[in-house]
Amino acid sequence: QMGLKGWQLINSGVNLSAIDYMLETMYLACCLLFIVYKNLQGTIPIDVSTLLCNKNSENNNNAISTFFVHTISRKRSSGFSETIRQLSNSSVSSNDPSEDFFKRLAGILDGDGNFDIQNLNGKRVLKAIRIKLHNRDLRILTYIQNQLHFGRINAVRNKPYSLYIVSTYAEMRYLIIKLNGLMRLKIKGFKESCDYVNIQFKEADYQIPANDPYFAGLVDTDGSITFNYSGNRIECGLEFKLNEYSKKLCLDYVIPGAKPYILERTHKSGGVEKHSILFKFQNVQNMIPIYDYFMINRLYSDMKFYRVSKIKPFIEIRKYKTTPKGSPEHRVYARFLLDWIQYQNPQWTKVAWVSKILDKDIVQEFNDK
After folding, report:
1. Which of 84, 187, 204, 272 lies 20 to 30 A from 217 at CA?
2. What number of other Cβ atoms are within 10 A of residue 147's Cβ?
């Protein structure tokens, strides 16, 4: 019923391939409905792949999707329910997180993760894989959960912390397979976890390659972005318990153009002597490489990412540190640093260098905020 207007469109040279495509689609739908009907009747389904492939007009050179063709052909041997199962599996696998995600996750677990191995009836059993973070960094946990589509997040009662927990055997085994060859610090627990799920442990390369997301996972959880007042620079640092694994860690190449200063030190905590290893990117020349790395591998800790994002603006005004206190330039410098240290940091007033840059007007300005 195209009528006069339809004939006018034809005479004016309009391409009617859209109508042809619509008819082909209707034909395809009829074929699929017929196959479903035959399946329900218990009869052998026909192979309509040749019909679908041949039903392609000269006006439309886009062939019907071979996805449907192969699905229908495969039905002859597997059955309709099996076809649906295969489609479901392919959909899940296509939505798996990327390799970069698991590199980052390995860093997060090496920073604040835990493989909960317990004795049960004389056997070592993996009860759960956990990540514990301050509620300020809850976004890291939700990011992991959204990527994996499993696990749960629980608040720690009466504490400002939350836990991401994976505790089913299938999900833990999936994670261990994906993380095998990527973990570098929590090796004792990870090796036992590999044994529990019957997987051979693979050792990671301890020389972290350029722009590897593993380092971002470490900094997100166990690292720091700090301001060195005497050096007038923004720094990135990591500190770990000194052991055979942390000692092998090589971060010389992960941030192109920057190498960390490494220090092994001994200190007392609660009357107990502890040994640690410190990696610190602390040169003024390191600031731009740090910024560039974290623009490629974004931090999910909002506070740390905010501090990194301010590196380039800081470079523009860091020269104002030596201007007279109370001058317009020094006030720009002071306001910048106070904003930088205040963001999501309720303990900012306890930072030693804060008192060195304050004057009465700026104190009043920040008190009014």
Report:
1. 272
2. 17
